[in-house]
């Protein structure tokens, strides 16, 4: 087949210089046809969202800023096991562990906890492997429904525990607990 | 004596155990071990992880042995035929044994310092059975302080007796042992007497699980974030040949050099292990290799990187002659200084 006859999209039409008839020159039917398309869209579903007032729902697999969870008693779940840092392909996570003392029993769930936990959001590619690796259900990207906000200094993108750990009230009220991530459900 | 293990025949001396013969062959037919330690005498036969099927007793008595045999305490006989990795019966039994070992194990790997170099983790992972059927409460013990250097987590212990045998054979008097029987058996010291022998730190190295861990390394770092180096120092009490686990320039911990079966080559003294955490104290020989699938190999690039040479067009910076004509350029669009810079880049 010659190249000029091939139509990859299937919508190729030949252009002709045929003279239009009288009715065609009036453009009456063509205008009606065009108007029909316009009017049809008045009754279809609106795709725009009035953004600041109205917000679109997040997809259940949406991955945003990380949060470090607390359990129902408000204790931090993270034990600094290092599996998130090991799984991280961008090497964005660093941590330092410490041993829990007797007075801190109500603060941390396990014997060991993360004294320092930092995520470099400039390195993070939001792949969610840390969430998958976590054996303690401590780190989630799918539950926060927050974005990492733009900034002007590199230092401000290193998120420490002050930004990542959820508040005690949120932990106790189970604010983030309801949204179960989809990917882990079928595995267990 | 000729012995055939999984179809591989090997000639070994009389008195060799089936396990040692299998290790001489190597590969997948080596049974896993928890309690056996080749550097210690009379160590083995307790955990039953190394069960093998003996399909032919010997040349003189070719009947198969009726039950699975623990390979670490079974001596070879001439003409013996052993099935290790090829016997579904033995693999099934090993899986059951690992399930029994995990019954009372607290499964606190995220907290445990041994995670990543733990024999029980390897065993459970190798058996690919990740479900527990145990519903009862797990055995727990009160935490006990056995000295300033060694942390005892009795809950994690699998009662392999390695540390007891080590203390018996390496030191004149041991102060710890197994107290109680059956489910109540536990490693303990005489009325919380601290373990202060010069070589007591080797208990950490022989422990297959996280029951005995280094207190000076407690929660410092996960083992796979450290880079292991072979190092030595002039030590008056021991050979001084150790593995240093470094993070940057910092020595995180010091252990003996372990072979592929996680057995130390030479026992080291407490002075080397706990008191020399400066890189200046050691002569570093070089990075240490581990078996390929180990998590310890993560980010350890032991081979030197080659300089990458990009095989590009000769005239990539100036542009080709035919292109000059095409875009009607009269000559090379660079002045003398720029040409000099291009020449320098090319020579690099």
TrEMBL record, chain A:
Its main location: membrane. It is an enzyme of class 7 (translocase). It catalyses: a quinone + NADH + 5 H(+)(in) = a quinol + NAD(+) + 4 H(+)(out). Its cofactor is [4Fe-4S] cluster. [4Fe-4S] cluster 1 binds at residues 78, 81, 84, 134. InterPro entries: 4Fe4S_Fe-S-bd (IPR017896), 4Fe4S_Fe_S_CS (IPR017900), NADH_quinone_OxRdtase_chainI (IPR010226). [4Fe-4S] cluster 2 binds at residues 88, 124, 127, 130. It is a peripheral membrane protein. Pfam families: Fer4_7. One of its GO terms (biological process) is aerobic respiration. PROSITE patterns: 4FE4S_FER_1, 4FE4S_FER_2. Keywords: 4Fe-4S, Cell membrane, Iron, Iron-sulfur, Membrane, Metal-binding, NAD, Quinone, Repeat, Translocase, Ubiquinone. Its EC number is 7.1.1.-. Residues 69-98, 115-144 form the 4Fe-4S ferredoxin-type domain. Binds 2 [4Fe-4S] clusters per subunit. One of its GO terms (cellular component) is plasma membrane. GO terms for molecular function: 4 iron, 4 sulfur cluster binding; iron ion binding; NADH dehydrogenase (quinone) (non-electrogenic) activity; quinone binding. It is found in: Cell membrane. HAMAP family: NDH1_NuoI (MF_01351). NDH-1 shuttles electrons from NADH, via FMN and iron-sulfur (Fe-S) centers, to quinones in the respiratory chain. The immediate electron acceptor for the enzyme in this species is believed to be ubiquinone. Couples the redox reaction to proton translocation (for every two electrons transferred, four hydrogen ions are translocated across the cytoplasmic membrane), and thus conserves the redox energy in a proton gradient. NDH-1 is composed of 14 different subunits. Subunits NuoA, H, J, K, L, M, N constitute the membrane sector of the complex. Belongs to the complex I 23 kDa subunit family. This is NADH-quinone oxidoreductase subunit I. The lineage of its organism: Bacteria, Pseudomonadati, Bacteroidota, Bacteroidia, Bacteroidales.
From TrEMBL, chain B:
Residues 1-88 form the 2Fe-2S ferredoxin-type domain. Gene3D superfamilies: 3.10.20.740, 3.30.70.20. It comes from the Bacteria. Its cofactor is [2Fe-2S] cluster; [4Fe-4S] cluster. SUPFAM superfamilies: 2Fe-2S ferredoxin-like, 4Fe-4S ferredoxins. Residues 89-128 form the 4Fe-4S His(Cys)3-ligated-type domain. Keywords: 2Fe-2S, 4Fe-4S, Iron, Iron-sulfur, Membrane, Metal-binding, NAD, Quinone, Translocase. One of its GO terms (biological process) is ATP synthesis coupled electron transport. GO terms for molecular function: 2 iron, 2 sulfur cluster binding; 4 iron, 4 sulfur cluster binding; metal ion binding; NADH dehydrogenase (ubiquinone) activity; oxidoreductase activity; quinone binding. It is found in: Membrane. SMART domains: NADH-G_4Fe-4S_3. This is NADH-quinone oxidoreductase subunit G.
